[in-house]
């Protein structure tokens, strides 16, 4: 009991403690009032500022190649070629006019009153025949120390080649010279030491940024089949195109006389080749290259876009179901991978211009092979068939030939057929010497 009483008395004493035994704690009361919130003048943070920086696409990283240099080079080279050709044609024509006018004074009874282009060409052929005779004499004097049999064979070969060269037209002569240049370039491709040089300077890569290779690639052929086609086309249509250019010049009412057509033919050939190369370059850079980049930018899970144009050849298509379609697809399919920007080699674009000019200038002519079967077809049918084959090659995606360059060359030949003779006559008048007397 004593213990419990002591606890109880202690508890009662604790209850009687004064208020001064503990510190007084005061809590400050705060009144809350409700008011309408005001609009903030700060601009809200836009969503793009909160987003992470977007990674550039593949097309933005690698950029797009430009074709400005190639266009400028083509225009300047074409103007230079025609200016050079017109100046040399005027110079040579003036020289032959002076020679014939001096000789006309001694033969006033037999010489015609007006000197024509045919008169100057006949005089030029006679001068060429005399040069070839002098060359035969030089060969005979050089080979005097050899045996009689060897000397006779050498002179016989020279006489045969010289006679063949003299009997053909002037247009075929210049075509033979271009053929020899093509053969020389083809032989250079066969050299291992020259192969790096040829790859840099005689192949036009649309992504290299070079321009002069559009000109050098015209005379470059790496494959013997392509070289044979170049020589065949050039020998067959080159002389006809040259004859048509001379004929149109004579038929024009205000046409100027000219002693030679080789400079005009060379300028046309170079301009046609450059235009064909530029057409192929622009198509590959502005059409095929962006499509290639867009295909590479697509995610692997995204399906390919269904083709709706000729560019379907550049996109994968489902395999054929029937065996017949599979056979024809394997027969006419491209041997190169899809979307490949192939470097350009060969001058078939310029040859297509010659072919088109010949077909328009001589619509009644016929084409025939020089080996059996000797079946001939109208030239317009042959040209249309070849152009349709190029269109089919573009649609199917063939890469063995540059079909865009072929169509560009054909378009240039058709345009030159309409506007070329007047342009050539105007060009000769621009660079002519006004002080020189005319016949």
Automatic annotation (TrEMBL):
<dbReference type="InterPro" id="IPR050925">
    <property type="entry name" value="Rhomboid_protease_S54"/>
</dbReference>
<keyword id="KW-0378">Hydrolase</keyword>
<dbReference type="InterPro" id="IPR035952">
    <property type="entry name" value="Rhomboid-like_sf"/>
</dbReference>
<keyword id="KW-1133">Transmembrane helix</keyword>
<protein>
    <recommendedName>
        <fullName>Peptidase S54 rhomboid domain-containing protein</fullName>
    </recommendedName>
</protein>
<keyword id="KW-0472">Membrane</keyword>
<feature type="transmembrane region" description="Helical">
    <location>
        <begin position="375"/>
        <end position="393"/>
    </location>
</feature>
<dbReference type="GO" id="GO:0016020">
    <property type="term" value="C:membrane"/>
</dbReference>
<dbReference type="GO" id="GO:0004252">
    <property type="term" value="F:serine-type endopeptidase activity"/>
</dbReference>
<feature type="domain" description="Peptidase S54 rhomboid">
    <location>
        <begin position="332"/>
        <end position="419"/>
    </location>
</feature>
<feature type="transmembrane region" description="Helical">
    <location>
        <begin position="345"/>
        <end position="363"/>
    </location>
</feature>
<feature type="transmembrane region" description="Helical">
    <location>
        <begin position="265"/>
        <end position="289"/>
    </location>
</feature>
<feature type="transmembrane region" description="Helical">
    <location>
        <begin position="400"/>
        <end position="419"/>
    </location>
</feature>
<feature type="transmembrane region" description="Helical">
    <location>
        <begin position="212"/>
        <end position="233"/>
    </location>
</feature>
<keyword id="KW-0812">Transmembrane</keyword>
<dbReference type="GO" id="GO:0006465">
    <property type="term" value="P:signal peptide processing"/>
</dbReference>
<comment type="similarity">
    <text>Belongs to the peptidase S54 family.</text>
</comment>
<dbReference type="InterPro" id="IPR022764">
    <property type="entry name" value="Peptidase_S54_rhomboid_dom"/>
</dbReference>
<dbReference type="Pfam" id="PF01694">
    <property type="entry name" value="Rhomboid"/>
</dbReference>
């Amino acid at each position: 009991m004593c213990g419990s009483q002591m606890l109880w008395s202690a508890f009662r004493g604790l209850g009687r403690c004064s208020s001064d035994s503990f510190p007084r704690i005061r809590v400050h009361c705060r009144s809350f009032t409700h008011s309408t919130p005001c609009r903030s003048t700060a601009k809200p943070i836009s969503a793009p500022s909160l987003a992470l920086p977007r990674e550039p696409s593949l097309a933005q990283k690698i950029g797009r190649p430009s074709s400005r240099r190639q266009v400028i080079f083509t225009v300047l080279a074409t103007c230079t070629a025609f200016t050079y050709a017109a100046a040399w044609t005027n110079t040579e024509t003036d020289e032959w006019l002076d020679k014939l006018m001096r000789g006309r004074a001694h033969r006033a009874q037999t010489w015609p009153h007006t000197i024509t282009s045919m008169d100057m060409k006949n005089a030029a052929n006679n001068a060429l025949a005399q040069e070839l005779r002098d060359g035969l004499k030089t060969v005979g004097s050089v080979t005097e120390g050899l045996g009689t049999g060897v000397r006779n064979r050498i002179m016989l070969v020279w006489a045969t080649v010289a006679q063949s060269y003299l009997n053909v037209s002037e247009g075929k002569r210049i075509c033979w010279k271009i053929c020899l240049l093509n053969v020389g370039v083809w032989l250079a491709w066969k050299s291992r030491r020259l192969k790096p040089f040829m790859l840099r300077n005689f192949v036009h890569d649309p992504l290299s940024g070079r321009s002069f290779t559009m000109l050098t690639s015209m005379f470059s052929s790496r494959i013997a089949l392509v070289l044979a086609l170049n020589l065949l086309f050039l020998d067959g249509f080159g002389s006809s195109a040259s004859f048509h250019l001379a004929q149109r010049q004579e038929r024009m009412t205000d046409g100027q006389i000219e002693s030679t057509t080789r400079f005009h033919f060379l300028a046309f050939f170079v301009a046609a080749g450059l235009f064909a190369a530029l057409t192929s370059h622009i198509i590959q850079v502005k059409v095929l290259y962006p499509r290639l980049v867009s295909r590479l930018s697509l995610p692997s899970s995204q399906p390919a876009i269904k083709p709706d144009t000729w560019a379907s050849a550049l996109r994968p298509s489902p395999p054929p179901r029937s065996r017949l379609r599979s056979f024809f697809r394997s027969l006419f399919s491209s041997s190169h991978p899809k979307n490949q920007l192939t470097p350009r080699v060969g001058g078939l674009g310029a040859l297509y211009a010659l072919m088109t000019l010949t077909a328009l200038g001589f619509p009644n002519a016929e084409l025939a092979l020089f080996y059996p079967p000797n079946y001939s077809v109208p030239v317009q049918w042959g040209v249309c068939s070849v152009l349709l084959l190029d269109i089919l090659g573009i649609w199917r995606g063939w890469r063995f030939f540059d079909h865009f360059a072929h169509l560009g060359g054909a378009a240039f030949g058709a345009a030159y057929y309409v506007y070329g003779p007047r342009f050539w006559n105007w060009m000769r008048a621009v660079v002519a010497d006004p002080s020189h007397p005319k016949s």
